[in-house]
Amino acid sequence: MTKYKLTYFDLKGRGEPIRYILSYMGKKFEDVRIQRDKWPPIKKTFPFGRIPTLEIDGKVFHQTAAICRYLAIEAGLAGKSPLENFEIDQVVGAIDDMVGEIGRVRRTEDPVLQQQLKETLINEIVPRYLERFEKIVENNGGYLANGRLSWADLYITAIGESLLGYSGKPNLYEGHPHLKALFEEVQSLPGIKEWIKKRPISQF
Amino acid sequence: MTKYKLTYFDLKGRGEPIRYILSYMGKKFEDVRIQRDKWPPIKKTFPFGRIPTLEIDGKVFHQTAAICRYLAIEAGLAGKSPLENFEIDQVVGAIDDMVGEIGRVRRTEDPVLQQQLKETLINEIVPRYLERFEKIVENNGGYLANGRLSWADLYITAIGESLLGYSGKPNLYEGHPHLKALFEEVQSLPGIKEWIKKRPISQF
User: Fold this and answer.
1) Does residue A95 register a pLDDT over 90?
2) Measured between alpha carbons, how far is B122 from B103 in angstroms, rounded to an integer?
3) B63: nearest CA in chain A?
């Protein structure tokens, strides 16, 4: 049996899309969570000094989207043609751009500037993304790509959970009914439903 | 014959990896370059308000890496297995992280802060990435993945050109002989060599 070991912070963040896909696949995985103060001394030992990483039978892989894209093939969540994969990759790229905006704020050192940037993020930047994702889902039969469930849908739902916690706005997805319905569908999928029940609690 | 229309700024930047791949494939493409002052009024008409976009027979696609990954299949620059594609995607993800760092600096509005961030970028952050890419190329037979040419190599070479111009440091790649050799090999490839000769001049 293939052994999976995910290493990330004690957060949802960029780790959660991988945890979602592994759970959907019914795979057991070691869920290593590094506390912030333990990170600096070991940072250098990870590829490009970043996590999440996923070890598959001892081999270390990195980059959340690359990991998900690979797992999605076995999970049956990839496209059925290069063009379908292209559709998925485009929207995942846009999700990653949004995640990059969040990372940019979280890495701002000056706390006053960080708070200013966070307000612009939550009140202006994120809503612009959400509006676009909402339209895509509305026009694609309830999914982000190709009119059916793909790893892009798991990806946005996992990131969406994290973003909700980070934003401090419980009504962040109000006004985006198609997106909200997609999130609820993904969170009810076999494997993911159980994962959400049993996972450690984290704010985002 | 398939019609390609690339829309980007009058820069190399995130557009150049796509121009490289199309040139390598021997495809003719319309190379639309939007001047900065013409961008704000039309920004909203592009997917997620961003460029580059590539129109393929009139259908608009976005996201540089997604576009390159798709074109790479026809170009013969993709992996031969899911695992090979995974290797390529990982390193492209890391290149995109580096590009994100550049974008973060370029989008900083305060010119004094921007200059400070640029110095940290060029003197600390970029060298850390380059050191890692250098090691990967050294350990992979001169390429970024799978021991042979892939779209990741075109991607990093195109981005590397842009970064060189932006940095203002002509010796940026000194001390990274494997990476430099890879750049030179890619820039000598049929199609790309001709493209570099005929393309409009831009600093980065």
Assistant:
1) yes
2) 13
3) A90
